[in-house]
Amino acid sequence: MRNVLFLAVLAYLVLVKGLVLNRLPPQLQPLNTTLSQHDPTHGVVDYLTRDEAFGRSLAGITSDGKAYMRVDNTNNLGWGVGRGSVRIESQRTYSGGLFILDAVAMPFGCAVWPAWWSHGPNWPNAGEIDVIAVNSHAYNRIAIHANEGCDHYGASGSGANFLGNTDCNSLGPTGNTGCGYEIPYANSAGGAFNAAGGGVYAHEWTYDGIKVWFWTRANIPGDILSSSPNPSSWGTPTAFFDGGSCSADHFYDHKLIFDITLCGDWAGEAYNNPSNFNDAVWVINSVRIYSQ
Fold first, then answer.
1. Nearest Cα to 85, choosing from 128, 48, 126, 135?
2. Measured distance CA(247)–CA(99) in Å, rounded
3. From CA 77, how far away is CA 274, in angstroms rounded?
4. Fewest beta carbons within 10 Å, which of 38, 88, 143, 187?
5. Contact, 55 vs 33, CB < 8 A?
6. What gap in Å lies between CA 144 and CA 149, rounded to an integer?
7. d(Cα 10, Cα 19) in Å, to the nearest integer?
8. Which of 109-143 are b and which e, b meaning 16 or more Cβ less than 10 Å from the residue's Cβ?
9. CA-to-CA distance for 261 and 19, rounded, in angstroms?
10. How would you classify the pairing of strands 45-47 and 83-85?
């Protein structure tokens, strides 16, 4: 029987509202903004501290109680100057479980790169799981990255399109390509996702592999809506990474991460126009974590 751990957004709401954190039981440790830093994925952003993000309204609560995280869309900046953004990660680490994200909106726009993902220590030796990673692609791509000995050949039990790379070793000859799938629906990401009222991404991580499902708002299973999820009833996963060719020991001690970064390889004119980032915002109903 799984126990529900309302980690991410529930705890994040506690952070935003400024309640006393030591009143939370241990399983409800919050997501924290990282220290102010440059983006480790080499985007042109300046990740703000907790107080900076809240003070500049780049993180907070909407009038109807949803959590939001966004990119600065008010300041004109010189080329190469990091634009204010938010990256939050879990204090707790995970080596398996069921993770369900209910998002109303995800960031999009020229060179906007949102991600909902996780990774372990000493990257890529403890692996990386990218559930949402959208850059210039029209559709969401789901991927894994690992070290030597992790391969993936596509799975007949996947509903999305396999992208073809079979060597998931991010230090190997194919570089940091990873192994992944592309969801063949525009409403899996960006403006089309938002126009449909958002949706749910769920991923189940077990010894047998990693399965990811996606549903638009209108098609979310009732057992998720009732907080009694039953993955065995969800049918074919959108993406399935079989543990047979990439064993479970490639993935462990992951921190869960939300971020919004901005690519550096586009025209300065787009970067200097803050209105380009009006839609670079996460709006989240909840993240629910179920573990054994």
1. 48
2. 20
3. 8
4. 38
5. no
6. 13
7. 12
8. bbbbbbbbbbbbeebbebbbbbbbbbeeeebbbbb
9. 29
10. parallel
Neighbour-count burial of 171, counting CB atoms closer than 10 A to its CB (0-12 exposed, 13-18 middle, 19+ buried): middle
3-class SS of residue 37: strand
Beta bridge partners, 61, equal 67
CA 12/CA 29 separation, integer angstroms: 9
pLDDT tens column, 70-127:
999 999 887 778 889 999 888 889 999 999 999 999 999 888 989 999 999 999 999 9
Q: Residue 237 to residues 28, 99, 202, 226, 248: CA-CA distances in angstroms?
A: 28, 14, 10, 20, 18
Nearest CA-CA partner of 96 in 179, 210, 212, 9: 210
- Rounded CA-CA distance 9/170 in Å is 30
Q: Which residues touch 132 (CB under 8 Å, ≥6 apart)?
A: 101, 106, 114, 115, 116, 117, 140, 142, 189, 201
> Can you list the positions of beta strands (E) in 34-111?
37-38, 45-47, 59-61, 67-70, 83-85, 87-90, 97-105
Query: Which residue, among 97, 144, 141, 99, has the nearest Cα to 123 in the 3D structure?
Result: 144
The three-state secondary structure class of 45 is strand
Which of 44, 58, 4 has its CA nearest to residue 258? 58
pLDDT tens figures, 4-43: 333 344 344 333 332 222 222 333 333 444 434 555 666 6
- Residue 281 tokens read as 């915002």
- In what helix (H) or strand (E) does residue 269 lie, and over which residues does it extend? helix 268-272
